[in-house]
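Its record is quoted verbatim for completeness.
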Amino acid sequence: MLEAHVFYCYTEKMQLTKRFFNLPKGSFFLFGPRGTGKSTWLQQEFKSALWIDLLQPENLRTYSAYPERLREIVLASNQQNVVIDEVQKIPDLLSVVHSLIERRQELRFVLTGSSARKLKREGVNLLAGRASMRHLHPFMAAELDANFVLNDALNFGLLPVVHSSKEPLDTLKAYVGLYLKEEVQAEGLVRNIGNFARFLEVISFSHGEVLNISNIARECSVSRKLIEGYLSVLQDLLLCHLLPVFTRRAKRGTVKHPKFYYFDAGVERVLRACGPLDKASEIDGCILEGLVLQHLRAWNDYQGNDNNIYYWRTQFGVEVDFVVYGAKGFWAIEVKNNQNVYTQDVRNLIAFGEDYPEAKLLLLYRGQQRIKLKNVLCLPVEEFLRNLHPKNDDLAEW
């Protein structure tokens, strides 16, 4: 396991918050949605670096017109660390970065981005393997420590920009609007922003569900092909995650389609419209499930991507929320938004264990006690989240 490097994020609610991160030794890309704290960390970790912020209009104009200016500035500087913030705005800069790394191997470039879409669309070679790829996620509970409040996380999510706000709900709504305006509309990623806004709401009802693109297209009154394009935009902007089905050594027929999740519980909460027909328990259940997934993804990334994360669902509807599979472990995890657990709650996990006896079976619930039902370990979900740390290889033993 890679050793977790600690970096920091300043907020209004707390003076300094430790973050978990595997800091590479050489040049690297740092991707993550807006508001996850990329720039805050860079300003603390690379205080004396040569800094180029492409969110600044004058920098955007200068380097768009003349990317070679980067070479002149870097070679004239005595700094070995060079930070280029939001590099996806000018993909041509990567060719200059590549040549500089070849020319001066002591240089270390840190290239951040909130989207890989423009880089992929223009066929840019991401430095031919000369820079590693890293991702920054919303806060983990263990990072916040005593400042983690489960109900707040379920209501507002764990984006640092939201968590630090005195008005988190207003900030969260503004955050979603920012993406629509600055990332989607300004970059020309979609032609009809109204259709896309409708899509964001409709697909929020698929959060934690098997994705059915045809149904979403019918609900939005647009073509399936257009919905596939919108989904691609969400993925490239790092705003969602598609969870594949676990099929290794399958003994039963499984479904083929992935499950959909927004990347943060608060974003899902804001985008999902609620009405008299919506049960709060159902909404809270899928949001809790998504909160667990975003923690699992962060834990896995900060460890060095040693595991793959799936879900399991048979053609007869027997489902386990998450399957974590890797060289160091094999876990099946079910999430229940209940204060108590009963034998019927672990039936799907038992079925999975019959097919995969090597797996450790975990049920996470809203109660306060550890319970063993048959061969399933039932853990309080808050305890699980608070103890999920990159230094821990095992998901249940601390």
